[in-house]
Write a structure and sequence with these properties.
Number of strands: 18
Distance between the termini: 74 Å
CATH topology of one domain: Topoisomerase I, Chain A, domain 4
Strand order of the largest sheet: 2-1-3
CATH class of one domain: Mainly Alpha
Shape: globular
Structural class: alpha+beta
Number of helices: 15
Mean pLDDT: 90
């Protein structure tokens, strides 16, 4: 069977800087020309962090070394033509030395696999076992276009992407027992955790080029704790063990599964992968504190004692929640406290420090891509995939900056506006004699409002980056946001008011549960008035502007008449 070496075979696809058709290339060419490409193109979003962590970043770090200091990282990041000639020579020498380890179908040590991995009866599974979006066993995506019985022929390039993806994101379902694994019981292994990335809210900072993205994702790491990638550890066997990661490169190339791709040639002689073996792999006993691709949450310790300290856990992204709604974690340096305390990714901390050192301009077009996997039924199936991209102003990463305060305020205002709209909906439903929509059931109007606010926040993020340290522009941007957010929130509220039944004019009185508290009257008018008050409280700058405009009109033409109660919320 012919080989397929990832060093030179065109399994990666990249977007050229300035546009043009995507280019297909191998590892060596992708790194040599990394400054010519905006970034990688993948078939499925969560393949991107898998390719970076399992392949490109470890090759670069092991061949050229990770930056030892922030200044070194900044100097390397500033190289407009990508890797220096010395670095390119070291990369090429490294790939030449380890070239055999990158052969996808090598007979002795196939890349990220176990040669001759087999079950006692020699069974294999369809390649859908690797593909998160394909029906396979219990993992049947909603509205799947194919069944488990349909063959799925993968090209070697596709197989390589799904191979590394499986090591990073695989479900925790029962795995096939294989010969040589002494922990197999009744032909299977249980208790498998998800792939390491499935336990994180993955954060990938990206720059203007693939080269810059690679450097942004190389944390400052002393050479002694860098460790070594999986392909230098010798051929893997079917046996596995729970163990801690031995350095950053071991963590990045973690072999969470034992896998064998079974290649064949189709009628035209082209290499394809339709069958695979996937079994249990190494289990990470402790997530290292140096994990760079996640933010962290500090939670109260399980056991209370005078010496107990908050537990540091990776912060996962929330399904259906845009990345900007998690700015409190993205923009927060390390700190601890009693209420939801966060710590941002070390990579974003370093990006902020590079700006302070003058190695990155304040208007550097940093973007942040977020990735996550939502599992169901004891993490044995994939229910949803989380992916978002937002511009992130470097100045906002500095805790004392105006940009930092503005963006946190905007994210909080958006959440409060959504809550105010939900409160209006609840009051109108009570006035009509029905119960409010439960928070965990159905779609509440606040969710729709957040959807309409989303493009405004993204535009504001880009504007804050362009404004730099100009506080006047930032203040004008803040007022413009409040005006647009006010109009969007008012529009959503008006739709609720206009759709309210006639019975809400008279409303009804609701007695509180239990014996305490007084009965409360709910009507269309009181619901609208309460919402208006909340709107002005949440968006104080625009409320002040409205009052000033009303005072100016009153000075010219007399005071505005009072609005009809509850008819709508036009100002």
């Amino acid at each position: 069977m012919p080989g397929y070496n990832l060093v030179e075979e065109p399994w990666l696809t990249a977007r050229p800087v300035g546009g043009g058709p995507p280019v297909e290339l191998g590892i060596a060419e992708a790194l040599a020309r990394a400054h010519e490409f905006e970034g990688l193109v993948v078939e499925f979003s969560t393949q991107l962090p898998a390719v970076l962590r399992q392949v490109l970043l470890p090759v670069v770090a092991h061949a050229t070394g990770a930056p030892g200091t922030l200044r070194e990282k900044g100097d390397r990041l500033a190289q407009k033509d990508g890797f220096t000639q010395d670095e390119l020579d070291r990369l090429q020498a490294y790939l030449d030395e380890h070239r055999a380890k990158f052969d996808l179908f090598d007979q002795v040590a196939p890349f990220a696999q176990v040669a001759d991995l087999r079950t006692a009866k020699g069974e294999t599974k369809g390649s859908a076992a690797l593909v998160a979006t394909a029906a396979s066993g219990n993992n049947v995506p909603l509205f799947a276009s194919r069944s488990d019985a349909d063959p799925l022929d993968l090209t070697p390039a596709q197989a390589a992407h799904w191979l590394v993806h499986t090591h990073c994101w695989d479900t925790a379902a029962i795995k096939t027992g294989v010969v040589g694994d002494d922990q197999v019981k009744a032909g299977k292994t249980t208790g498998n955790p998800t792939g390491p990335l499935g336990q994180l809210g993955v954060i990938i900072p990206t720059g203007r080029t693939l080269y810059e993205t690679l450097l942004l994702n190389l944390p400052v790491t002393p050479a002694g704790v860098l460790g070594a990638p999986q392909w230098t550890r010798g051929p893997h066997g079917p046996a596995w063990t729970p163990r801690p990661a031995e350095g950053l490169l071991d963590l990045w190339t973690w072999q969470a599964r034992r896998i064998r791709l079974v290649p064949h040639q189709d009628e035209a002689g082209r290499l394809k992968v339709a069958r695979v073996v996937v079994s249990a792999g190494d289990r990470l006993t402790l997530l290292p504190v140096q994990e760079p691709h996640t933010a962290w949450t500090f939670t109260a310790p399980a056991k209370k004692s005078a010496s107990a300290v908050p537990e540091r856990r990776p912060r996962r992204h929330t399904q259906g929640k845009a990345a900007w709604r998690g700015l409190d974690a993205l923009l927060t340096p390390a700190r601890q406290g009693p209420d939801g305390v966060f710590e941002t990714s070390v990579l974003l901390d370093e990006a902020s420090a590079l700006r302070v050192l003058g190695k990155l301009d304040a208007d550097y077009p940093l973007q942040v891509e977020t990735f996550g996997m939502v599992y169901g039924t004891q993490s044995s199936v994939v229910e949803d995939v989380i992916h978002d991209v937002i511009p992130l102003p470097l100045l906002a990463l500095h805790q004392d900056s105006e940009a930092h305060e503005l963006l946190l305020d905007v994210a909080e205002q958006a959440e409060r506006l959504a809550k105010a709209v939900n409160n209006l909906s609840a009051d109108l439903r009570r006035a009509a004699g029905t119960d409010p929509i439960p928070w965990d059931k159905g779609q509440r109007p606040g969710d729709l409002l957040l959807h309409t606010l989303d493009p405004l926040v993204r535009r504001l993020l880009a504007g804050v980056r362009a404004a730099g340290t100009d506080d006047d522009i930032l203040e004008r941007g803040r007022l413009a946001w409040e005006e647009l957010a006010h109009h969007r929130a008012r529009g959503t509220a008006n739709e609720l008011l206009l759709a309210a039944p006639a019975t809400t004019f008279e409303g009804r009185t609701v007695s509180p549960a239990g014996k305490s508290g007084k009965p409360k009257a709910y009507t269309l008018g009181t619901a609208g008035a309460n919402f208006r008050n909340q709107l002005h409280e949440i968006l104080p700058r625009y409320a002040d502007a409205l009052r000033e405009a009303a005072a100016a009109r009153a000075a010219e033409t007399g005071p505005d008449p009072d609005p009809a109660p509850g008819a709508d919320l036009d100002d």
